Amino acid sequence: MESTYKNSGVDIKAGEETVNRIKGLAKSTFNKNVLSGIGHFGAFYQIDLSQWKNPVLVSSVDGVGTKLKIAFALDKHDTIGQDLVNHCVNDIAVCGAIPQYFMDYMAFGKLNPEKAEQIIKGFSIACKENNVALIGGETAEMPGLYDETEYDISGTIVGLVEKDKIIDGKNVSYGDILIGFKSTGLHTNGYSLARKVLLEKFNLNDKPDLIKNSIGEELLQIHKSYLKLITKLNEKVSINAFSHITGGGIIGNTKRVVPDHLQIKIDWNSWEQLSIFKLIQEVGKISDDEMRNVFNLGIGLIAIVNKNDVDKVIEISKEVIEEGIIIGEIVK
């Protein structure tokens, strides 16, 4: 038999079909700054410099880790794209940046155009919600590297911030208060431990007493975007720092924006821990310290503010239907 690219595992026609399927989804996110359509070697995005005095580019790249394993098992692929966009958006929004555009990378063992379309659908939903343009990406087929039913995704976000409005934690001071905002679940971190613990005892369709949805539904809860909240707070009050709670938990992430001579004191009983975390800890017999090091435990974003601004921050948060919870303080 003649050796061809297709019988070695790469289907060019499937790639072309995928591009045709996703063109409309990507274009639905475009704004006036996007100069190119899908198909060029590079994507073009024009910055309206009349709106900026001293703009700084802020970028971040990420994946969704082994949360993908849950999507594979449930054959549900339309939400992990939202997870990825929202995760990336939060990572630059906490620096004060306004997200501009997003680019994706998808690598398949065997390219399934319908599956790829579902992933991109998730990207496009979140991009529109965050006012971000999905201006390009890469889809690769890698037989032998990935299982035929599996894939990996990553994304890159680029935003802009005025240089004098960068939020980097340099203003964090002794006595500042930590205000936490709720997560929707695990977001995109801690899945290797959660899967090991839960799937030894349950299957994804089980509904243990502690949780209201099935385990699969709980584990696929969409990583929340805090962009509206962060933007609203930045407009009305001076925030000393924000912390996006991802891998490493509340302390591990928040200490990035706290000067070395100061420490973080958390009241771990100040909010109701989400039931999915209670289930993981109970089933896995996991210590409090390990839970705090791995998971967000129900707090996805923290604002560090001057104690005189606490009431104002909590009131402003209500305008975007968010509940601000005092969860700790900065100590010496």
From TrEMBL:
Domain PurM-like N-terminal: 56-161
Any single biological process term in GO: adenine biosynthetic process
Cellular location(s): Cytoplasm
GO cellular component, one term: cytosol
Metabolic or biological pathway, per its Swiss-Prot or TrEMBL entry: Purine metabolism; IMP biosynthesis via de novo pathway; 5-amino-1-(5-phospho-D-ribosyl)imidazole from N(2)-formyl-N(1)-(5-phospho-D-ribosyl)glycinamide: step 2/2
Major subcellular site: cytoplasm
Top class in the EC scheme: ligase
Gene behind this protein: purM
Oxidoreductase is among the record's keywords: no
Keyword terms, alphabetized: ATP-binding, Cytoplasm, Ligase, Nucleotide-binding, Purine biosynthesis
Family: Belongs to the AIR synthase family.
EC number: 6.3.3.1
Gene Ontology MF term list: ATP binding; phosphoribosylamine-glycine ligase activity; phosphoribosylformylglycinamidine cyclo-ligase activity
Domain PurM-like C-terminal, first and last residues per copy: 175-332
Stated name of the protein: Phosphoribosylformylglycinamidine cyclo-ligase
Tree of life domain: Bacteria
Reaction catalyzed: 2-formamido-N(1)-(5-O-phospho-beta-D-ribosyl)acetamidine + ATP = 5-amino-1-(5-phospho-beta-D-ribosyl)imidazole + ADP + phosphate + H(+)
InterPro entries membership: PurM-like_C_dom (IPR010918), PurM-like_C_sf (IPR036676), PurM-like_N (IPR016188), PurM-like_N_sf (IPR036921), PurM_cligase (IPR004733)
